[in-house]
Amino acid sequence: MDFHHYKEIVTFIRSHHGLTYDCMKELIKMFPRQSYDTLYSILSHEYQKRMKYNHAKTHINKNKYWDLYQEGVRERDSPGIIVRMSKAFDVAPCLIAKIILTRYFENLGVSEKKSLGQEYEVKLHREAIKLGLAFRDEEHLRKNGYDKTPDCKLDVPVAVDGFIINWIESKALFGSEDAHRDYTKNQYLSYWNRFGPGLVIYWFGYLQTIVEPSDKRFIIRDHLPENITQISTATVSYFGRDEI
C-alpha cells in the first residue's frame, strides 16, 4: 500500500467519532479495494493509540476500579457494585462503568489478537513444511534458553531473490511505520544480531515506506515466498551464527 492511500484511511479513522463498529462499516464502503483484515488491522492500531492517549492520566484509577469490580463479582456482591464504587470515590457511575467496559474489551482484544497471531503462526509453519524447509519453532528455541525468538529458525539458510534468510517472523497485522519501528527495535534487531539476516511477513500488507532496499538485516513480504533457493550449509557457514 502506498503512503497516500494509507494516509487517507488513517485520516478518516482519526476524524470519525463514534463506535469502531460503525467506523469499520464506513471504511469498507470507502475503500472497497482493501481487504477487511487490512482495514481492521489499521483501525485497531489507531484505536489502541487513541485509548492510550485518552486514558494515560487515569491509568492507576482504571486498574483500581477494575480490580474492585472483579472482586465484587467474585464475592457475589448484591447488585449496585458500580453505584457503590461511585459513592466511595465520588466519581460519576457512568464514568466508572465506561472505564470497566474499556478494560474488559482491552482484555478481550488482547485475547483475540493472540489467537489471530497463533493462527497465522500455524499457517506459516504449514507453508514452510510444504516448501520443504527444515526449522525450529519458537517453543523449541525457548526450551534451549533463547529469550527473544522468531517464529521459525531455519536449520539451513535459504535465499529469496538473492537475499539470505536464517529466520522468519510472522505478524498477523498491517505493517504501519510506527508498528514496524517498534517491532524492529524490540524484536527484529535481536534476531538479526543472534541469527543473521531474516524475513518478516506482515500478512495483512504493509506500507511501502517501511521497505529499505539497501537493508541487509531482513526483507519484508506479505506472504511466504515460493521462489526459495535451497543453499548448501558449507556455502553459507557464515550465516549460521547459532547451531541449535
Automatic annotation (TrEMBL):
Family matches, as InterPro entries: CDIN1 (IPR029404)
Keyword annotations from UniProtKB, A to Z: Cytoplasm, Nucleus
Recorded superkingdom: Eukaryota
A cellular component annotation (GO) from this entry: nucleus
Localization per Swiss-Prot or TrEMBL: Cytoplasm; Nucleus
Chief site of localization: cytoplasm
Protein name, per record: CDAN1-interacting nuclease 1
